[in-house]
Amino acid sequence: MRRIHVIGIGAGDPDQLTLQAVKALRDTDVFFVLDKGEAKADLVELRRDMLRTHVPEGTYRVVRARDPERDRSAGGAAYSPAVEDWRRARADIYERLIAEELGEDETGAFLVWGDPALYDSTLGILEEVLARGTVEFTYDVVPGISSVSALVARHRTGLNRVARPVQITTGRRLAEGFPEGVDDVVVMLDAHQVFRQYADQDIDIYWGACIGTPDEVLVSGPIAEAAPRIERLRAELRERKGWVMDTYLLRRHPKE
């Protein structure tokens, strides 16, 4: 039967590959890579560098497919349907790749940025493909170093404080209000820099973009002081690279 490895490859630094990930790479016949276009070609090249470094040449092949576009203008009630349409389109691609490009006794792999279990769609999409019943395969998951772990490590801080909870959320949710009952909040997928609406509160931000890559930038400090620098650096990165992946931790100072 066909097998699939879902391999977490870290936040961008090739040294963040775990020994388990390297073992899975060397156990793979076909690597499936979704191409996000010229603007993000360096993401594909980073994957190729990892393969060249850790897998003997000639022991595998790479199959590329174009990643479907998602309607990022959809908001409000239209947001969830837009995401579902995009996931369905991805499932169509995964289904075709596995059925047509992977032999019955071969092992394929999807290389996932960060950790496959944290704000990534790969596992859910593979389950959808299996539910369709058109192609049979088994899969396993190799955890990776997430951008969250890499962020706090680079800032030399902890994710939580003693006896206090931490919450991971999205920029879309943060725009609805600061989570109740928690003072340490990690925010992912924030294209609109929502942290700026909390600049009048006693909150520190630990921000990082392109973590683990040569373009990595880090900023920390009170939001009111850090926000202008973050905005400038983020704009410069987007202008130069065409994309930005950033994550941040908000740390509120509770009133005594």
UniProtKB/TrEMBL annotation:
Keywords tagged on the record: Cobalamin biosynthesis, Methyltransferase, S-adenosyl-L-methionine, Transferase
Keyword flag Transferase: yes
Record carries keyword Translocase: no
Pathway(s) it belongs to: Cofactor biosynthesis; adenosylcobalamin biosynthesis
InterPro entries reported for this sequence: 4pyrrol_Mease, 4pyrrol_Methylase_sf, 4pyrrole_Mease_sub1, 4pyrrole_Mease_sub2, CobF
SUPFAM superfamilies from the UniProt entry: Tetrapyrrole methylase
Coiled-coil ranges per UniProt: none
Domain Tetrapyrrole methylase, chain residue ranges per copy: 3-226
Protein name: Precorrin-6A synthase (Deacetylating)
